Amino acid sequence: MRILIADDHDLLRDMLVAYLGAEGGIETETAPDFRAACEAIVARGPFDLVLLDYKMPGMQGLNSLREAMELAGGQRVAIISGEASREFAERVLEAGAAGFVPKTLPAKSLVNAIKFMAMGEQYAPISFMTAQEDAATNPLAERLTRRELQVLKGLTEGKSNKEIARDLDLTEPTVKLHMKTLYRKLDVSNRTQAAIVARDAGLF
């Protein structure tokens, strides 16, 4: 099974590659933007599944989705997004995509969704707009402050310190301080490990 993951966030790509690699029998390739993804499809496709980040450079909505789907004799293409509405997900599916995957899915569900789509099925989590775990009931969340949880959520979505700082209206040095505290509390040494711990705990 061959999967192409196209996302401009290094952390998210690394995390998905790590999880899919652990499954066995899955080969992964990555691209940082839409053009690079298209070049990979033309040069080394077809893939069993192409996963496109809706917000990465080069993406022009459903037009880019359709373009990728037509490459190399036809591709199964799914959209992954950190911010999208149910209406948008429905439009993605109506356009013929293999599925719509929110970045907020727990790691195990995310991997299962990717495998499901690669095997020829169409996927979208029915309640992704309404079913959100209450972080306060999560054992891991109880060890973190509200601000640390917000920073960790941004981290699991593959955002840089600068992007997290902008989203939370903080300075980058403040975000870095929160990161240091998070690493200590989660007993990890880098961003990828922190994101994996959060995903494994079902926190986001």
From TrEMBL:
Record keywords: Transmembrane helix included?
A: no
Q: Where is the HTH luxR-type domain?
A: 137-202
Query: Looking at the record's lineage, which domain of life comes first?
Result: Bacteria
Q: What residues does the Response regulatory domain cover?
A: 2-118
**SMART domains membership:** HTH_LUXR (SM00421), REC (SM00448)
Single GO biological process annotation from the record: phosphorelay signal transduction system
> What UniProt keywords apply to this chain's record, in alphabetical order?
DNA-binding, Phosphoprotein
Q: According to the UniProt record, list the residues that bear 4-aspartylphosphate.
A: D53
Molecular function, one GO term: DNA binding
Task: Spell out the InterPro entries in the cross-references.
Answer: CheY-like_superfamily, EvgA-like, NreC/VraR/RcsB-like_REC, Sig_transdc_resp-reg_C-effctor, Sig_transdc_resp-reg_receiver, Tscrpt_reg_LuxR_C, WH-like_DNA-bd_sf
Write down what this protein is called: LuxR family two component transcriptional regulator
Q: Which organism is it from?
A: Albidovulum inexpectatum
Lineage from the top down? Bacteria, Pseudomonadati, Pseudomonadota, Alphaproteobacteria, Rhodobacterales
